[in-house]
Structure formats: C-alpha cells, structure tokens
Amino acid sequence: MGNACCNNTEDGTVAAVAVRRTADVATAPQLPLQSAGATEVGRSIAENDGALILLFRDEGLDMNHTATFTATPVGIHFSKTTPIRVKSVAPGSLADNAGVQKGMVLLEVNGADVEHSPVAEIQHLLASWGKRRAAS
Fold first, then answer.
1. Sign of the C-alpha dihedral, residues 111, 34, 16, 52?
2. How far apart are CA 32 and CA 119, in angstroms?
3. 109 — phi, psi (to 5°)?
4. Who's near 36: CB < 8 A, 6+ residues apart?
5. Per-residue pLDDT for the chain (136 aa), expressed as one digit of tens each?
6. DSSP three-state, residue 44
C-alpha cells in the first residue's frame, strides 16, 4: 500500500490508506443531515492537527458521521463513481474503529464539499493528504 493515501485497485475501486485514530477526535457525534458548521469544524481541526477529516452520510440512519485520522493506513475502499461511496472497510482497521461503514456517502474531505466532485479530484485530495503525512 505504500505511503500514499489512495491506490487504485484491480477491481476499479479506490483504496484509501491512512491513519492512526486519535482518542479525542476520531469519531465525532453523529449529526442530522442538515447540520451546520461541520465544514468549519473540519477545516479548523485539519489545519491545527494535519488530520484527515472525512464527513460521510449514512443514508440508512439518515445521519452524518465524521471520522478523523492522523496517520496511514485508514482501511477504506471507495467506489469510483460519484457520489463516492464506501465500497468496503477493512475489519479491525482505523476506519472500522472510527465507525465508517460500507455504503456511506463521502460528503467532505477536510471541510471541502466533494459530494458531486469528479472522482479524480477526490483521489487527488486524499492522495495529497497521504503524501503530506508521509513527509512529516
């Protein structure tokens, strides 16, 4: 998997590889879908911490879920279509421990709205974070 945040896999998924879970910020409380302020909170934590903050929509529960990572690998495989969905989560991985589940829709990466962004742009955001973490 290397030091990068995302790797393309043979089956056409994007494998996100990242992070050590931090005890205080790894899983934020679930928020209603229309909650305000998630973007600002995500940016603030990411800028101060160098963390990767992913905001997901759990359509089954009609809730948003935030997971924060500070190291690699995370253990998430994403779909290659928009909106980006979690295709699978490695059992026992940091993402699994942070409550990320198959089928969740990726809404934000460090406060940037990515719900309707091109897959290549999202891959770039995730890979850029992975490269910065590897360099630090």
1. positive
2. 25
3. -120, 115
4. none
5. 333 344 444 444 444 433 333 333 344 433 333 333 444 444 544 554 688 999 999 988 889 999 999 888 899 999 999 999 999 999 999 999 999 999 999 999 988 999 999 999 998 888 888 777 767 6
6. helix
